[in-house]
Amino acid sequence: MTFNIQAVSFRDPEAPAAFTRSLRETGFAVLTDHPITPDRIDAAYHDWGTFFASDTKDAFRAKAPDPAGYYPFRSENAKGSPTKDLKEFFQVYPKTPLPDAVATETRALYDDLVVLGMTMLGWIEDNTPEEVRKTFSEPLPSMLNGSAMSMLRILHYPEQAGVEVEPGATRAAAHEDINLITLLLAGSAPGLEARDREGNWHAVPCDPGMIAVNTGDMLELASSGYYPSTTHRVVNPAENQPGPRFSMPMFIHPRPEVRLSPERTANEYLTERLREIGLGS
Q1: What is the enclosing helix (H) or strand (E) of 7?
Q2: For residues 241 and 230, is the Cβ–Cβ distance under 8 A?
Q3: What distance in Å separates the CA atoms of residue 43 and residue 162, rounded to the nearest whole number?
Q4: pLDDT tens-digit map of 71-105
């Protein structure tokens, strides 16, 4: 099967079916013409870039067991990876204390992405075969009702020019996401790749204004594998592109008590996976 990640216009009447088909076939789809403008995305990257370059970021460091806040460089590794990823990041939940300079825009962006995520889950619900849909413990959009678990992560991959990188270390090692779906606002530079079923890697489109959407492990589990959680990574920059990279994935999570399968709730699965990537207690 050809690995063809579909780019669909949010405004196209045929978008829901095309979007869902791409998720089914590749684990990814790309949205264009969506409500979040490139100017808003650029402004967020600029303001968060200032934060990551400041001396104040350590004051917002995450304190376990609360997962919200700032995580310094080399805090996280992919499941099964022996090396830490070459990134720092900030995790935002509905009530996370934020730096004043980014608070208003970031909270508005968070709220808009939750709404968009619920819309995407509605598209998936409506275009899933009945025999798969009837195995969901409840309709996909309603899994978000009352959830405070969705998380916006602001990622900074520092410039690598003149920096010695240990063998095997990458910006983000090959991994799958934990949640239902991820909405990834187009990164400030290329680097995101997805792996097909034959093990070949493909660049994920990341033109300004695009949102890449991918299936997470929770949706794969809830759909008994109908929607694949595709392995992806962020590669180190080419020699002619040594600068930093920023990206903002929104991880759409259900309520903790939502049952993904007869054996596991969302909270049980999340706790297990966080331990595997070095962020759990």
Answers
A1: strand 7-9
A2: no
A3: 28
A4: 999 898 888 888 999 999 999 999 999 999 999 99
DSSP, res 66? -
Q: pLDDT per residue over 15-40, tens digit each? A: 999 999 999 999 999 999 999 988 88
Strand order in the sheet with 88-92: 7-9, 28-32, 211-215, 181-185, 245-252, 151-157, 88-92, 69-71
Task: Count Cβ atoms within 10 A of the Cβ of residue 196 and give its class: 0-12 exposed, 13-18 middle, 19 or more buried.
Answer: middle
DSSP SS3 for 248: strand
Q: Under DSSP, is residue 250 helix (H, G, I), strand (E, B) or coil?
A: strand
For residues 84 and 66, is the Cβ–Cβ distance under 8 A?
no
The pTM of the full predicted model, rounded to 2 decimals, is 0.93
In the chain, what are the domains? Answer: 7-276 (2.60.120.330)
Measured distance CA(192)–CA(234) in Å, rounded:
5
Q: What number of residues does the chain have?
A: 281
The closest alpha carbon to 53, from 248, 246, 277, 258, belongs to 246
Place of tokens 């650029």: 42
